[in-house]
Design brief:
By secondary structure, the chain is mostly beta strands. The chain has helices at about 90-100, 275, and strands spanning about 5-10, 15-25, 30-45, 60, 65-70, 75-80, 80-85, 115-120, 125-130, 140, 145-150, 160, 165-170, 175, 185, 190, 195-200, 205-215, 220, 230, 235-240, 245-250, 255, 260-265, 280, 285-290, 300-310.
Length: about 300
């Protein structure tokens, strides 16, 4: 038919509304669709009761529609198969916590909004909690692989896109994202970038974590300084569930052919510290790599060496 479908997102529920067509049924057997202007013919309430009191969180990428449902503590996606909470893809706690720390955003007249936007170049949805008290304030979702890809410390008042460009508004000023002259800067302020890598292969095996090997982009290397990582370029931190932690500083790596290698030091929290303390031993661990300066830098591969612990 030539009718249209309107998605009506209400406070507690969402419905698909058929416009400009009338559906007629004869003897409950044969259905006809008759065109008509200015007609709402059918309202179908969708399953799940996923409504929203935050209209600024609604994002339309041309295929799907996304929004934040405070009552369900979820970020959801609407498509041909109905509504699904994409926050279930590994970030349930993040959205539940973000909802819980803002009891004042329960009402329709809330002064605290949740802001969404679509970044066409990366096919990525952004969602921000402007008044979040601590932790990360913005999170991104990648459509192509149904995965949440990053957390960010910045937060905008509004987002909008034009063609492949993505913009945000902060304090009345418009900023363009993915500006190649301002990597590592958010609204004029420099920020550190951190990559977090979970080390969970063979989780039943206790391991002694021994070394880190990083494959680096060329601009990580200072050739005038004998081919070393640039001054303050990065820090690697290793920690585990037993409270152990250690790090490797930029000047402790040996660099050759864009590969940086260094052994892990001892547990900083043990007697003897990083020099004479206990080995870093655990079944799983977390590796954080922090970039100390702005600029487009990348690490295509990280390798961590270990031996089984007796």
């Amino acid at each position: 038919s030539n009718g249209s479908v309107l998605l009506a997102i209400c406070t507690n529920k969402t419905a698909s509304v058929y416009i400009d067509e009338v559906r007629l049924s004869i003897n409950n057997d044969i259905n006809y669709i008759v065109q008509g202007s200015n007609v709402i013919s059918e309202i179908n309430v969708l399953n799940g009761s996923y409504g929203t009191v935050h209209p600024a969180s609604v994002v339309d990428d041309g295929i799907y529609v996304y929004w934040f449902s405070k009552s369900k503590r979820s970020f959801v996606r609407y498509g041909n198969n109905g509504i699904f909470p994409v926050s279930e893809y590994g970030v349930v706690d993040y959205f539940e916590d973000s909802a819980l720390i803002h009891p004042e955003i329960d009402g329709v007249n809330s002064t605290v909004d949740v802001v969404g936007g679509y970044f066409p170049f990366y096919d990525m949805v952004m969602v921000s909690f402007p008044n979040q008290l601590s932790g990360y304030k913005t999170i991104s979702f990648m459509n192509k692989d149904n995965a949440w890809r990053g957390f960010y410390s910045f937060v905008a008042d509004y987002y909008f896109d034009i063609n492949d460009l993505f913009f945000s508004v902060k304090n009345g000023i418009i900023y363009r994202h993915n500006n190649t002259n301002a990597y590592g800067e958010f609204y004029g302020n420099s920020a550190q970038t951190m990559i977090s890598v979970p080390l969970n292969n063979a989780p039943d095996m206790p391991k002694i974590w021994q070394s880190a090997e990083l494959f680096l982009s060329p601009n990580f290397i200072s050739w005038s300084n004998g081919g070393q990582i640039i001054n303050g370029g990065l820090t690697v931190e290793l920690s585990n569930e037993d409270g152990q932690s250690t790090n490797i500083l930029y000047n402790e790596f040996e660099v050759g052919e864009y590969i940086a290698y260094a052994p892990f030091k001892k547990d900083a929290n043990s007697t003897g510290g990083v020099s004479n303390g206990s080995d870093m031993v655990s079944r799983t661990a977390g590796l954080n790599i922090t970039f100390a300066d702005s600029g487009l830098r990348y690490i295509p591969m990280v390798k961590v060496g270990f031996i089984p612990s007796l």
